[in-house]
């Protein structure tokens, strides 16, 4: 019989919703499922918020006491979907209690906390994972397959961008995402780390970086209430304003340990860009292009194609491609953000059942945090900084 894994979800916001959906849907997509995740307890800041999340996300119980829950013997998985500054405390407690831990990105609010989390993971027998879901988009996994098969030769160049516009409006609310003491950094940690994760996945570790960081909107109206309000939904030009002390944008050059070079950009202030994650990779034998806003497509150019038919071709991902066995039966029926989270949940449960570590686990996510830290440092010094 398929094993059941009891999940304690800490945080019932936007990411809590995405993870709850994945727990419910994973066995519907990937069958036989490696395990059946059971939505046991959801924890939020107040009993009221937790009960609402329980009813909405289909959990059995609700609680406002994360510490008691992560120490409960009937919990197998602790899933952390809280703001960045609480990741370390919850994860370390859960690992000490022997739980498998999946944590939303970035690993933590500070490098010191990330180091402590990786250390706690090393000291435990548990499986850890950080929820960098975009590398699990089938087209990105297909790019990895082509690279591993040598189809584009040795990689010389990587260009990665993650552009959004939800914080371009200066009257958008000052949520925790704009406060260094909670978020650690702005676009760098929030979305730049997704690109760093994919750069590490596809090309290998980054060695040195040089960055320009900018904060365009220096103050924002204080947010009313604790819910994470992305964008300008809470616009109020009259509300009291407070300082934004994180970056709105990072532009950087990077050098990989392999010798490849590249650029990484992230901005949440790029009007007209919604979830514009692009990857362009050049190799000695071809090129790869991916744009998350057209996430079912991978564009590839193979230099050994006959000269008269050279050019980018578009592959629509489907059953013949990574994760295709569990997704929809015809290419281009289309996958969404939810499916990337379902795949993430599948890989996490598989690793738990195999007693292995998925990628990126806490150890690998620490390397991503080291790159983020180097980007922040370089933004201050304008110098090339070692990771
Ligand atoms: C906001 O920028 C955000 O919710 C990120 O925090 C997520 O990681 C990203 O996938 C969607 O946008």
From TrEMBL:
Pfam families for the chain: GFO_IDH_MocA, GFO_IDH_MocA_C3
InterPro entries given in the database record: Gfo/Idh/MocA-like_OxRdtase_N (IPR000683), Gfo/Idh/MocA_oxidrdct_glycsds (IPR050463), GFO_IDH_MocA-like_dom (IPR055170), NAD(P)-bd_dom_sf (IPR036291)
Key words, A-Z: Oxidoreductase
Position of the signal peptide: none
Listed GO MF terms: nucleotide binding; oxidoreductase activity
Residue stretches making up the Gfo/Idh/MocA-like oxidoreductase N-terminal domain: 5-132
Superkingdom of origin organism: Bacteria
Residue stretches making up the GFO/IDH/MocA-like oxidoreductase domain: 141-288
PANTHER family assigned to the protein according to its UniProt record, in alphabetical order: BCDNA.GH03377
Protein name: Oxidoreductase
